[in-house]
Each structure stands twice: as structure tokens, then as C-alpha cells.
Design goal:
This is ComF family protein. Helices cover 37% and strands 15% of the residues. With 242 residues, it is α/β, with parallel strands linked by helices. The chain has one domain. Bound molecules: zinc ion. The site of zinc ion has 7 residues, from helix 2.
Length: 242
């Protein structure tokens, strides 16, 4: 079926996942829309760590996220992941994040409800983060640990979709419902293997990743629950800000 679907895809007219224009799966204009350096944003509910965004959540960013989440356009994750990877590189360049030789990056995707992830055919933010992690340049041979995405958080049932809720309502909606997955602390805290045995352990830099930040409530609650189990989040990085 997978191969058949692939063959059928080739025969069907292709439209851009960002804007719907016919002719290619990702058009030049949307590609240009995703260029640029990350910007610092200051959501109403401050998570207490720097918040960076690849750009305003509109145009190609919004189009691609909706195509991915609502219309099954899994290919839309690729340009979004590339934008995320470029932002990470820029933040490292600017000294906002440690260089990869010093600290591999662990991206923790925003928690999603299991039912929502199932409906969407997998967690889209996890997919974007994992692709972005694999897109970062290869390490020095002696520092083999690389960037990665770890699904460390979950959203307990009872949390509603936060669409349409104000900042205070979002905070109430999330209180106590974002939890740390079993085994996640070990995966986030330890020095990831691969380096020489005599090398000093390199503590990974944990970055919380989401598609969009609006009030900041999700990021703030996630940073808080991770801090409660001893995981210090270095920054929040989102594809777009409202
Ligand atoms: Zn387009």
C-alpha cells in the first residue's frame, strides 16, 4: 500500500503545503518565507527562559503546520524542520546555545494528547523536532553524540484543546496535566553515549519545542514540570509566534 500510495502521489497534481499553489509540494515563495534569523518573543505567561521563534505564525509557517496536522501532509514537516535547524544553528552561532561540541541538543516536543496524536497519524511536533535534530551538521569524530528529540512530556486526559482560551484559562486548563514520561529524566540528564570513555560528560542542552507560542502557558508549564524533576530547560524554540 505504501508503494502504491507513493506511485499514486506521483500521478496526482501536487500543491504547495504552505500556500496551496499548484506545481510543487513546497513552492519557492514559501521557502523564502521560512528564511530568516530567529527572533526573541515575550509571551504573556513567561516560562522564565528565553523564547525564540523562527518567525511570525502566518503565511507558509501556518499553512505548513495546518497541512501537516489537519490534512496529513507529512512532507510539510521537512521545510518546517529545516527552519528549526537553521534557527538552532543561528542561536549557536550567536552564543545563545552552546556549540554542538560542548553540548548536544535535546529537543523536547510540546506534550500532546495521545488521542490527538493518533488522529493526526503521529505527533507532528515530535516529527519536526526529530527531523531538525537529524539535520544538524555532523559532529567531530570524538564527540559522536548528536542532537536528538526526546518525547519527554505527556498531556493527561482532561486537558482541552486550548484554542480560543485566554492566558489565565489556558494556565488553569494545563495545571497538573503536563507530566514527565517514565524514563524521560534519564534520557534527558545523562551524557549521551558515543564519546571517548575518558572525556568529560557533556550535559545536553534541553530545548522545549512547539509549533506556535501564543500565551506561553504550555511552554511555561512544561518548563516548570521539567524543573521539578531536575531538568533545566535552556530555551523555548517555536516555529512561529502569534
Ligand atoms: Zn507555497
Amino acid at each position: 500500500m505504501g508503494m502504491l500510495a507513493g506511485l499514486l502521489d506521483l500521478a496526482l497534481p501536487v500543491e504547495c503545503a504552505g500556500c496551496g499553489a499548484a506545481g510543487s509540494a513546497w513552492c519557492a515563495r514559501c521557502a523564502a518565507d521560512l528564511e530568516g534569523v530567529p527572533v526573541g518573543v515575550y509571551p504573556r505567561v513567561a516560562p522564565g527562559v528565553p523564547v525564540w521563534s523562527t518567525g511570525v505564525f502566518g503565511g507558509a509557517r501556518r499553512g505548513a503546520v495546518i497541512a501537516l496536522k489537519e490534512h496529513g501532509r507529512r512532507d510539510a514537516a521537512v521545510p518546517l524542520a529545516a527552519a528549526l535547524a537553521r534557527s538552532i544553528a543561528a542561536l549557536r552561532e550567536a552564543g545563545e546555545l552552546d556549540p554542538p561540541e560542548l553540548a548536544p541538543l535535546i529537543m523536547v516536543p510540546a506534550p500532546s494528547r495521545a488521542s490527538a496524536a493518533r488522529r493526526r497519524g503521529g505527533d507532528p511536533v515530535l516529527r519536526i523536532a526529530a527531523l531538525a535534530a537529524s539535520a544538524t551538521p555532523p559532529r567531530l569524530a570524538s564527540a559522536a553524540a548528536s542532537d536528538r528529540a526526546v518525547r519527554a512530556l505527556r498531556l493527561r486526559t482532561g486537558a482541552r484543546d486550548s484554542v480560543g482560551l485566554g492566558a489565565a484559562a489556558r494556565q488553569r486548563n494545563l495545571a497538573g496535566r503536563v507530566t514527565v514520561r517514565r524514563g524521560a529524566v534519564e534520557r534527558l540528564a545523562g551524557a549521551p553515549g558515543g564519546g571517548p570513555p575518558d572525556a568529560a560528560p557533556r550535559v545536553p542542552a534541553v530545548v522545549f519545542v512547539d509549533d506556535v507560542v501564543t500565551t506561553g502557558a504550555t511552554a511555561a508549564e512544561s518548563v516548570r514540570v521539567l524543573a521539578n524533576v531536575g531538568i533545566r530547560v535552556r530555551a523555548v524554540l517555536v516555529l512561529g509566534h502569534a
